[in-house]
Amino acid sequence: MITMNKVSKHYGSFQVLADCTTQVHKGEVIVVCGPSGSGKSTLIKCVNGLEPFQSGEIIVNGVSVGDPKTNLSKLRSTVGMVFQNFELFPHMSIIDNLAIAQTKVLGRTQEQAREKGFKLLDRVGLRAQAEKYPGQLSGGQQQRVAIARALAMDPICMLFDEPTSALDPEMVNEVLDVMTELAQEGMTMMCVTHEMGFAKRVASRVIFMDQGRIVEDDSKEAFFEHARSERAQQFLAKILHH
Amino acid sequence: MHEFDWSSIPNALPFLWEGMKISLNITVSAVIFGIVWGTLLALMRLSPIKPLSWFAAGYVNLFRAIPLVMVLLWFFLIVPHLLESLFGFPRGSDMRLSSAIAGFALFEAAYYSEIIRAGIQSVPKGQMGAASALGMTYGQAMRLVVLPQAFRNMVPLLLTQGIILFQDTSLVYVSALADFFGAAYKVGDRDGRLVELLLFAGAVYFVICFTASRIVRHYQNKLKTA
Ligand SMILES: Nc1ncnc2c1ncn2[C@@H]1O[C@H](COP(=O)(O)OP(=O)(O)OP(=O)(O)O)[C@@H](O)[C@H]1O
Ligand SMILES: [Mg+2]
Question: ABC transporter domain: which residues (chain A) (predicted)?
Answer without folding.
Answer: 2-236
